[in-house]
Amino acid sequence: MVYLKEKTSQFFFSRQYGYLVVVVYAIITFTGILYHEPWRDEAQAWLLGRDLSFTGLIREMGYDGSPMLWHLCLSILAKSGLPYFSMAFFNWALAVAAIVVFMRNSPFNPLTKTLFVFSYYLVYEYSVVARSYMLSVLLLFCLASIFRDRLKKPLLFGLLVALLVNTNTHNFLAAVAFGLIFLFDSWKKKKMNLSLKDWIALGIMLAGGIFALFTVSPPLDSWKPGLMNEFTWLASIDAISQAFIPTCTDN
C-alpha cells in the first residue's frame, strides 16, 4: 500500500502527468470548438481583420474599443485564404500553448494545477469562445515564467509587455505594473546604470503602451467620445460578481 502511494505521488509530480493534463485539456477544448457556434463579437473581429487594411484596423479600433493585436492575428489568417474555422483553431492552439507553459513553469502542486486548468474560464470561456483573452493568458503565463530573469532578458520581457498591452484594455494595468516593476528593479539593482538593452526594453514597452492608447481612443463621432468611458464602482462590483456567480434578471 505504501509502495502504491509512493508511485502515485511520483506520477502526479512527474512530467508524464503534466503531459496527460495537456492532452486531456486539448481533447476537451477541441471537441468544444467543433460544436461551438461563434457569437456575434467573434465574427465581428474576423470580418474586421478580413476586410480592413492595417491602417483601416487602426482607425476602426477606436470604434471597437479594443487594441488591435487580436484583430491583426485574424487579419493574417483571413488574408492568407484560411477559412473562418481557423480563428477557432488558432485560439485553441493559444490555449494549449498556455497550458503547456503553465504546467511546466508554475510553482503550484499538481492538484492546484489540475483544478485551475479545468476551471470554467480556461476550459470554455477563453479557449472555446475565440476572443483576445486567451492571447492575454498566454502572454501573462510567459511573463510569469521569465519574471525572475526579467533583468537578464530585458528585450524579451519588454516585447512580451508591449504585446500584452495590445491584447485588450483589461490588461492595461497589468502591463503598466510589469513596466514599472522592471524600471524600479533596473534602477535599484543596477544603481541607475542601465544598459543599452534595458533602455531598448523600456522603449519597446513605452511604444507598445502609446500605440495601444492611440488605437483605443474613441473618435468624436463614436458612441462614447473621449478616452475614458463613464465609470461607476457599482457596475464594476456587479461585473465581478456576475463573472463568478452568474444570475438571470428580467429587465
Features:
251 residues; 13 helices; globular
The tally of strands reads 0
Radius of gyration: 21 Å
Q: Helix amount, in percent?
A: over 70%
Q: How big a fraction of the residues is strand?
A: under 5%
Low-pLDDT segments: none
Structural class: mainly alpha
SSE ordering: HHHHHHHHHHHHH
Explain briefly what this protein structure is:
This protein is mainly α and 251 residues long.
Task: Provide structural commentary.
The chain is mainly α. 71% of the residues lie in helices and 0% in strands. It contains 13 helices and no strands. It has helices at residues 2-12, 15-35, 40-51, 54-64, 69-79, 85-105, 110-117, 120-125, 133-145, 154-165, 172-189, 196-216, 233-244. It is globular. The model has no long low-confidence stretch (mean pLDDT 87).
Write the layout of secondary structure elements.
Blueprint: H1 2-12, H2 15-35, H3 40-51, H4 54-64, H5 69-79, H6 85-105, H7 110-117, H8 120-125, H9 133-145, H10 154-165, H11 172-189, H12 196-216, H13 233-244
